[in-house]
Each structure stands twice: as C-alpha cells, then as structure tokens.
Amino acid sequence: MNKTLYIGNLAMEVTEEDLQASFAEVGPVVSVNIIKDKFTGISRGFGFIEMAHAEDAEKSIQRFNGGQLYGKTITVSEARPKKDLGGSGREGHRGGGFGGGRGGRNRRF
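Now predict its structure.
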C-alpha cells in the first residue's frame, strides 16, 4: 500500500529529481511533488513523496529525517491527510469588510 511522506525545510535549489533519486535508494517512489508558489513558481520549502510500500516509507523517515540536503536539515514525516474544509473553508472567519470586527468607527453610507 502506498504511503505519502511530508518533506520539510527544503532548500530552494532542491528539485523533484533530487528527491526522487535520494528516496529511490530506499525503495520504489510513486510520485514526488515540491510545492511551489502559484504566482512566482518558487519552491515554498516543502513537498510530498509517495512511496510504493509503507515499510519503505518508514525506512525513509528513519534514514532522512534530520539529514542534510543542500546544506539544510530536512524533516521527513508521515503526511497527514487533507482536512475537509467543506463549504467555503471560512467557517469562523470574522475579519474583512468595512467593519470586519476590528473595532474603529462605524461607517455610514
């Protein structure tokens, strides 16, 4: 069964090919995805690796967590599933707008 890993604190120079090559030493890699800023295309410093086998994912955590890659200490852990935000994903949000719950004077139009 596939297992997805979170890889954090990546140097900007790290490529998906770098991660593929490193983690493939432990076992088969299904996919690699470095998360990038949607406007600039620059790495946000983290990504995900999907390993083909759960055992290889555990071995990867043991081998690479706390290790050095391009001079930075990376974190490797089991990825948590995305939370279902439902609706707009803004439940409990109280900011924004003219009043915005920030205090200040009332506005009249």
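The first helix runs from residue 16 to 24.
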